[in-house]
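Figure 6 in text form: structure in, sequence out.
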């Protein structure tokens, strides 16, 4: 398994960061590199057991679909789950720690490549890690510029 860990500090309360990352999946392509669309596969509000399908546009013109299921949903502190279908096997996790109105976000992932991505090996793994770093920077810019949902308990931007 390959381990990936990225961190970012965002000038916004944890409730707001959580709302953008965990609840506003429609707008995820605005800050998440290679995500074309995310479909929520369940009718109930997001929570433990919620499943999502990610439609990805990958480098080299490849298109791929993967599905995840949330196994932890502790709003606004921790959301985690596993990859259930597609080219990735393993787990992922977002942790949010708020201090003085800032939120420290930690994204961790333990994964192995499957399908055609397995053949791309190290080349794809490097591009994927760079994409996650880019996403964290883009998430910070997106939220700090005032874009995305603003939970009722969050400060106005």
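Output sequence:
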């Amino acid at each position: 398994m390959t381990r990936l860990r990225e961190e970012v500090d965002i000038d916004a309360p944890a409730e707001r960061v959580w709302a953008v990352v965990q609840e506003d999946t429609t707008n995820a392509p605005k800050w998440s590199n290679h995500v074309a669309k995310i479909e929520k596969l369940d009718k109930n509000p997001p929570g433990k057991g919620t499943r999502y399908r990610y439609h990805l546009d990958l480098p080299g013109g490849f298109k791929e679909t993967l599905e995840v299921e949330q196994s932890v949903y502790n709003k606004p502190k921790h959301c985690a789950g596993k990859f259930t279908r597609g080219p990735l096997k393993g787990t992922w996790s977002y942790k949010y720690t708020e201090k003085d109105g800032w939120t420290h976000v930690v994204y961790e992932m333990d994964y192995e490549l499957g399908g055609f991505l397995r053949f791309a090996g190290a080349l794809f793994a490097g591009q994927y890690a760079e994409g996650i770093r880019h996403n964290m920077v883009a998430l910070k810019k997106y939220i700090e510029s005032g874009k995305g949902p603003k939970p009722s308990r969050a400060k106005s931007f």
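Caption detail: The helical segments are 14-23, 115-144.
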